[in-house]
Design brief:
The chain has 382 residues and is of the alpha/beta class. The protein contains 12 helices and 17 strands. The radius of gyration is 22 Å and the shape is globular. Bound molecules: L-homoserine (HSE). The site of L-homoserine has 8 residues, from α6.
């Protein structure tokens, strides 16, 4: 197997190092705009050097972002090259097109590293869906935010202080928006539900609430309530095929399995009608865990050339966030216009427990309350 590697960042260097120790595969070219010592003639800034090299049969895309990653993946597949990608954002937006391009040329596209990094989650979800009816997918799918929540809980420190420390230690990105606003998790739950339910969801329709407005006072209030805050994604299929999906902070009872997930670990879960609930725990990010998943996909492609994780021609998934109701913790200084029990003053606002609300209504309510109090925070109760 001769590989063209797109992107020599953290994960790309991990893949390079693992592949360099193997006899069954070789990195023939590396696309990166930076000067990278030690790569010599392998380094190129032109994608065409990889696309037009007929000796390269497989492209590994680890550039991240939407463009030009999307363009390069589709062009590589159309040229008949297998593709392995960890790019969750690109897959969540261009799932159907990538699947179609692979199907038309007979190339394989594999995406294990895009959800859960080194955790064998998609691998097992793909196996389960052959036999079982998947009822829901979800879990803690982001390590950075779990580290922030766990540290706030154990140290009593505020959000900004904990985020700065996570950045100093190299866990959180310099621009942490994609993690703390839930876009990274939204992309992952979109890929997981597409695979689980055999369809294509519009990722922009998944109600997504991040954790950037959480305060140390909120966390102390959760402790008084006997609850632990975790950042969860979930997509559940209704009997008529509609999918109720969301990404939001959730207040769990202390005994819940997700409450025991600490530091930057992930837990990715699904429930099948026959197999019941399955949880997969471990490092969902990081250089070698993610690179490991990429090399697993490369091995699978070598054994089964052209065997894809994505299926072409699947129907759109109908998302409906009004199907399931939950009570919510709501902290705001704005007047609350729904039925809710006031608990106590928290910071400059009041903490409430709302009557059961559907996800779409709660997210819309928070958007309205933020016109008056931009710091309004909410979390579902489970
Ligand atoms: N920033 C992500 C995380 C990396 O912290 O989980 C993997 O998407």
């Amino acid at each position: 197997m001769r590989i063209g590697l797109l992107g020599m960042g953290t994960i790309g260097s991990g893949v390079y190092e693992i592949v360099a120790r193997r006899a069954d595969m070789e990195i023939a070219r590396v696309l990166d705009l930076r000067r990278i010592p030690g790569l010599g003639d392998k380094l190129t800034a032109r994608f065409e050097d990889i696309l037009e090299d007929e000796s390269i049969d497989t492209v590994v895309e680890l550039m991240g972002g939407l463009e030009p990653a999307h363009e390069f993946v589709v062009r590589a597949l159309r040229a008949g090259k297998n593709v392995v990608t960890a790019n969750k954002l690109m897959l969540s937006h261009h799932y159907a097109e990538v699947a179609q391009a692979a199907c038309e040329s007979g190339a394989g596209v594999r995406v294990s590293a895009s959800v859960g990094g080194g955790i064998p989650y998609l691998h097992n979800l793909l196996r389960a869906r052959r036999v079982d009816n998947i009822l829901w997918v979800g879990g803690i799918l982001n390590g950075t935010t779990n580290l922030i929540l766990d540290t706030m809980q154990s140290s009593g420190a505020g959000f900004d202080e904990v985020l700065r420390e996570a950045q100093r230690l190299g866990y959180a990105e310099a621009d942490p928006s994609s993690d703390i606003d839930g876009i990274d998790v939204r992309s992952k739950i979109t890929i997981a539900m597409n695979i689980a339910f055999g369809g294509v969801a519009d990722t922009r329709e998944v109600p997504t609430e991040g954790i950037r407005r959480l305060t140390g006072e909120d966390v102390r209030q959760f402790a008084r309530m006997g609850r632990v805050c975790r950042f969860l994604a979930r997509a559940e299929r209704m009997e008529d095929g509609a999918v109720c999906a969301c990404v939001e902070p959730v207040l769990l009872e202390k005994g819940a399995i997700e409450a025991a997930v600490c530091k930057n670990d992930n837990i990715a879960s699904f429930e099948g009608e026959y197999v019941g609930v399955q949880h997969f725990f471990g490092q969902g990010a990081g250089k070698f865990p993610t690179a490991y998943a990429v090399v697993e996909d490369l091995r699978d492609l070598a054994a089964h050339p052209g065997k894809s994780h994505l299926r072409a021609g699947e129907p759109p998934l109908k998302l409906d966030a009004r199907r399931l109701k939950k009570r919510y913790y709501l902290r705001t200084a704005a007047p609350v216009e729904v039925e809710a029990e006031a608990l106590c003053a928290v910071g400059a606002g009041t903490a409430y427990i709302t009557a059961a609300l559907n996800t779409a209504d709660m997210h819309a309510l928070a958007a309205r309350l933020r016109n008056i109090d931009g710091a309004t925070f909410f979390a579902a109760l489970r």
